[in-house]
Amino acid sequence: MTAALRFDPIRLPAECVELRKQVRAFLAEEIAAGTFSPFKPNREDTDVPEFSRKVGARGWLGMTWPKKYGGHERSFLERYVVTEEMRVANAPTRRFFVADRQSGPVLLKYAPEHIKMDILPRICRGEICFAIGMSEPNSGSDLFAAKTRATKTDGGYLINGTKIWTSSAHIADYMIAIFRTSPPTKENRRHGLTQFLVKMKQPGIKVNPIGQITGQYEFNEVVFTDHFIPDDHVLGEIDGAWKQATSELAYERSGPERFLETYYVLTELVRAVGTSPDTRSAEGIGRLVAQLHTMRRMSVSVAGMLQAGKEPVVEASIVKDIGTVWEQQLPHRVRDLAAFVDETATNRETLEQQLSFAIKTAPKLTIQGGTTEVLRGIIARGLGLR
Amino acid sequence: MAESENIVVETAEKIFADLADAQTVNNDKKGEWKAPLWQALSEAGLPLAWVAEEFGGSGASLAEGFGVLGAAGRFAIAVPLAETMLAGWLLAQAKISSPEGEMTVAPASPKDRITLNADGSLSGRARGVPFAKAAKHIAVLASGNGGFSIALVDAAKVRVEAGLNLGGDHSDTVSFDHVQPLAIKPAPKGVDQTTLMLMGGVARSLQIAGALESMLEISVRYSNERVAFEKKISKFQAVQHNLAKLAGESAAALAAATSAADAIANAKSFDDAVFLEAVSAKIRCSEAAEKGGGIAHQVHGAIGFTIEHILHRYTLRALAWRDDFGSESYWAVELGKLVAARGADELWPLVASR
């Protein structure tokens, strides 16, 4: 068996306490100003550029990045606090969330200096939005089956093919995508894909929105037709994207967004049952809170390991597996518990509207960003079973 | 974990490995392993780890003691180590010296009460007291005189109705009928029945988490050895995914239990945040015992259901430990009431308090 799983009890340092107060005060101001409502996760306008710029101005984007790129050289645990407070408040983070969590760190590691100097400060200011181009019509979980071609041409590459399920592509300024630069080899089927920085809103890129069962349009089909990407937009090793993908996963998979997506229904349930709940409601709420608390402590523990420079890929996969299954079941459990809530509860309508949206959201939670099946495969590999 | 914590835990692990190997214990129908194990633990100062030297103990830290309990869970230790540690801790709260030998604590359920009579004697009944039959002394938390008292009682002075828990360990009903304690002092401010239940509950959570770590390890090992349909069963995706779920349950239990232990070890008082940590650990570890233990058995098939196989030493004890110091259902109700009383908008600040 491989080394034991680790989830050391991390205590958030003192600077996080002060930071949390600042974030809460900021969010309260924005709510009061009508920028967004914490009770409405199903709003249409999840892209709020002005809010994004304000978050950047507060210094809460690129928090862990070097100062010379506009970052703030703060800890992963501080970033964690900002992320969870935004998520719990249902703040409109769409414009900056992917860039801050994922795309920025990829650029930091693999982009040439002049591109870092150009793009990273703009992410930190909350000005630009990123998308991630992974899935294709016939390759989702099986990432390395991607076929969209990048063909070498003078000074760069010509891209032809289609990406799909690409969240935020319709508003994104950039995409980080993998394209095929060589065929796979017999020895390594993962060989032949290269990571690229794509500038969106350019000739040869067509974005077609795809409606979701929630009624929202947040993912898209992105069609590339002889789209030109210059040589300096290659990120990392040609044909070697597979070596670069795994280290990102610990960042992508262990954050508070992996169990808080439907959290709002729990808050509203507590409001609906009032201060003296019956035994059934009390037990149901108690179990949900204990489970939530445990996942958060696991997630904070992984953030602590990231801060310590480790790559807890298996632990992160466990957090996402347990967290997404929990947030998927949460609206159904809340619905069960709300069945006997007093008809006159003042927030009855809010709770019902939220439940309707959360139940429709639920199926995607164990699919996006690595399915449950893929995660369990990674965990099994970590256990020495594959 | 600090260096010194590792040394205490490593000492315990070495004793467990030498004298409480699961297969040896399982083969020994007469229980001859118990006396040498207890002697070695006593010589190392582990049963009275949480008692200062001036009160007869070895003066280890709370964190060190919690580490020992996790290790005890990994070996499914079936002598009253956790119970004696808790008893010593309780007595030390009132500066009562601990005697040598096995001890346990009463009450061991949040619903039972032992009362202090006007004549200084104790009355009441405590059910599900672990290892009462093996204990020479009982540390008692009694209510009366407008507060709580902590007492040391000679186990020969109480009536013990023997019972066994799911794991086959003693879980007895202890009746106090005007029993005069050997020593009794008022409990200090902040130590009440809830405090004792939370300490006991975190001890059990650490033991369950340790047992789950071992269930995962022996299940993975077995799946890599057992061949069916001409391949190792670890190569079947259904088995892999089951083991991945067991790893998740083990991880959740470990994270919840060690977080609660860390919270208590660093707490100034048992406030709402510590309450959340401690009861969440008991709730989540109990749930993991059910889900994780079920998977461990499923992976093992029929062989894991035999009395000869060691698996049940972990799975049944983990299930049994759910019942001590308040079950997960009991604490879920209490936590739900607390959350509701604080109000909806105070839920997140509570969860994010650490």
Quick tags:
heterodimer, A: 386 residues, alpha+beta, Butyryl-Coa Dehydrogenase, subunit A, domain 1, Butyryl-CoA Dehydrogenase, subunit A, domain 2, Butyryl-CoA Dehydrogenase, subunit A, domain 3, 11 helices, B: 354 residues, 3 domains, two-stranded antiparallel ribbon
Q: Proportion of β residues of chain B? A: 5-15%
Order of helices and strands of chain A: HHHHHEEEEEEEEHHHHHH
Greatest interface and its participating residue counts: A-B, 57 and 59 residues
CATH class of the largest domain in chain A: Mainly Alpha
Order of helices and strands of chain B: HHHHHEEEEEEEEHEEHHHHH
Summarize the biggest pleated sheet of chain A.
Answer: 4 strands, mixed
Number of discrete helical segments of chain B: 11
Integer average pLDDT of chain A: 94
- Span between termini of chain B: 18 Å
What form of chain A results from the Cα inertia axes?
Answer: globular
Q: Outline the biggest β-sheet of chain B.
A: 8 strands, mixed
Radius of gyration of chain B: 20 Å
Contiguous helical run count of chain A: 11
Name of the top-level CATH class of the largest domain in chain B: Mainly Alpha
Level-2 CATH architecture of the largest domain in chain A = Up-down Bundle
Percent range of helical residues of chain A: 40-55%
Please characterize this protein's 3D structure.
- The complex is a heterodimer of chains A (386) and B (354).
- With 386 residues, chain A is of the alpha+beta class.
- Chain A has three domains: 14-128, Acyl-CoA dehydrogenase/oxidase, N-terminal domain (Butyryl-Coa Dehydrogenase, subunit A, domain 1), CATH 1.10.540; 132-240, Butyryl-CoA Dehydrogenase, subunit A, domain 2 (Beta Barrel); 254-382, Butyryl-CoA Dehydrogenase, subunit A, domain 3 (Up-down Bundle).
- Chain A contains eleven helices and eight strands.
- Chain A has helices at 14-32, 49-57, 76-88, 94-110, 113-124, 241-253, 264-273, 279-307, 313-338, 348-365, 372-382; strands spanning 130-133, 149-153, 156-164, 174-180, 193-199, 205-210, 219-230, 234-235.
- The longest helix of chain A is centred in the C-terminal third of the chain and has 29 residues, at 279-307.
- The model of chain A has no long low-confidence stretch (mean pLDDT 94).
- Chain B is α+β, with helices and mostly antiparallel strands and 354 residues long.
- Chain B folds into three domains: 1-77, no CATH class; 103-190, Beta Barrel (Butyryl-CoA Dehydrogenase, subunit A, domain 2); 193-351, Butyryl-CoA Dehydrogenase, subunit A, domain 3 (Up-down Bundle).
- Chain B is built from eleven helices and ten strands.
- In chain B, strands 1, 2, 3, 4, 5, 6, 7 and 8 form an eight-stranded mixed sheet that branches. A two-stranded antiparallel sheet of chain B has the order 9-10.
- In chain B, α7 runs antiparallel to α8 (272-300) and α8 packs antiparallel against α10 (328-342).
- Chain B is globular.
- Chains A and B meet through α3, α7, α8, α9 and α11 of A and α6, α7, α8, α10 and α11 of B.
